Amino acid sequence: MFLPKRSRGTAGILLLLVLLVAAGLFVLRQFEWYPPRIQASLESEVLGRRPFVIRVDDRGRGLAHVSVSLATGGESSLIHFKEFESSPRFSEIPVQLDPERHKLKDGPGVLTITAADRSYWSFFRGNKATFEKNVTVDFRPPTVELISEDRYVTQGGSGLVAYKTSPDTELSGIRIGKYFFRGYQGHLPDRDVSMAFFSHPYDVPASERAVIYAQDHAGNVRRSGLVYTVRPLRYRRVKVQVSDDFIQRKIVPLASEAGDSSGTPREQFLRVNHDLRRVNEETIDKVCRRSAATKLWDGRFVQLANSSVQANFADHRSYYYRDQKIDEARHLGYDLAVTRRYPVGAANSGTVVFAGALGIYGNTVIIDHGFGLCTLYSHLSSVAVKSGDGVKKAQNIGRTGETGLALGDHLHYGVYIQGVAVLPLEWWDPKWIRDNVTGKLSRVKKKEEAPATGG
Questions:
Q1: CA–CA dist 250, 261 (Å, integer)
Q2: Of all helices (H) and strands (E), which one includes residue 311?
Q3: What's the rounded Cα separation, in Å, for the pair 374 and 307?
Q4: What is the distance in angstroms between the CA of the first residue and the CA of the last residue of the chain?
Q5: CB 141 within 8 A of CB 92
Q6: C-beta separation of 445 from 295 below 8 A
Q7: In the beta sheet, which residues pair with residue 193?
Q8: Which whole number is the average pLDDT over 105-129?
């Protein structure tokens, strides 16, 4: 079939127009004039050793290069330069300042970030964007002064330290191994003095020592070592036989609650004793770290009336099913027994921060006593309080039971410092409380209130 000459001419013109439009769009895209966009996620206007992130994006031909410089003391230093080969539309660049390598000085400065794209605009130099911000450069770590410390700490037990940090401190506390215990201010006359309950945890070697950790707004860190003697404590190793009856009565229902009751008895047991236990302990940690920044308790903590200890703190339990070891765990509290459904009193005054079902722990109450100190009451048959309630020492909060993984009616009682389980025995001892907590606080307070003497 042949088109008339007039039609062929019209088609040719249309094709030429389409080609011209396509070529124009192609050229226009090469010469796009949209500059890149720059974002700098600075936590404050003070820059130091804390890393920050730069985000750059371009909606045209993609990024060509990004540079970061910082001017201090009249001199500008190139901190970072990145040239892109693949012309990405987006890039996220972490930046870490180093005063020696980058030759930076403390004081006022100007942070400058420049980004260019692959556009042919501006005589093929591309579109450019510049971000500038006046900052303060500070690489001096905060100061730390130890005011009162513990000379002896039991492994797995508790301690109390008072220390003073410089006003620029943003975060401070006691660090040991993987654990961090935040310090609290405002309890003593000097607002720069912090106090921190801490532990030398049961799973940290006796040879390791805690340090006071202080970090300022710029991310600079000071570590000051604590000198104390660790009293070693031997924890029992206990062999626990897991029966088929226990699997059916305790493990299967809890596995169903966790969302999956399938698999062999061993798989079901691991899902509960290992996976669900970890989730439950994360909940305890989260709840206890929201502790009030004030002391809510008074005097020694009281043991469940008329109770005997059936299982100890930090017992290392090995679980066997049909003569094969299938799991192990630490028992992070005391098991206290009296009679069935025995009334449970609060160990000391405080605020209920959790009341309800908690997996392997069954019906549970957690009481916050302030400054990171919490007590836990588990396997309850009934709960008599709700979250948010204020309670007094010995006030009824529920009754003992065998909910969760409990084999028989008892109370699982735990003491936690900022989510870390500690030896409950010390907190029952009035002499230990006087020597290590209330007496120390009183001495520090008197020292702070004493008038300065001068010559």
A1: 12
A2: strand 308-311
A3: 20
A4: 117
A5: no
A6: no
A7: 164
A8: 83
What are the start-end ranges of the E strands in 73-186?
75-83, 90-95, 107-117, 128-137, 144-148, 152-154, 158-165, 169-176, 179-182, 184-185
DSSP 408: S
Percent of the chain's residues with pLDDT above 70: 90
Neighbouring residues of 257: CB distance < 8 A, sequence distance ≥ 6: 359
DSSP state of 361: G
Which residue is associated with the tokens 């006593």? 369
Under a CB-based contact definition with an 8 Å cutoff, are residues 296 and 393 in contact? no
Query: Rounded to an integer, what distance in angstroms lies between the CA atom of residue 176 and that of residue 159?
Result: 12
* Residue found by looking up tokens 């700490």 in the block: 153
What is the predicted pLDDT for the residue at 149? 79
The CB-side HSE value for 316 (13 A sphere, CA atoms) comes to 7
Query: What is the per-residue pLDDT for 134?
Result: 95
* pLDDT per residue as tens digits for the range 163-194: 999 999 999 999 999 999 999 987 777 888 99
If you average pLDDT over each of 151-165, 220-234, 354-368, which comes out highest? 354-368
Tokens of 264: 């062999």
Gap between the Cα atoms of 55 and 41, Å rounded = 8
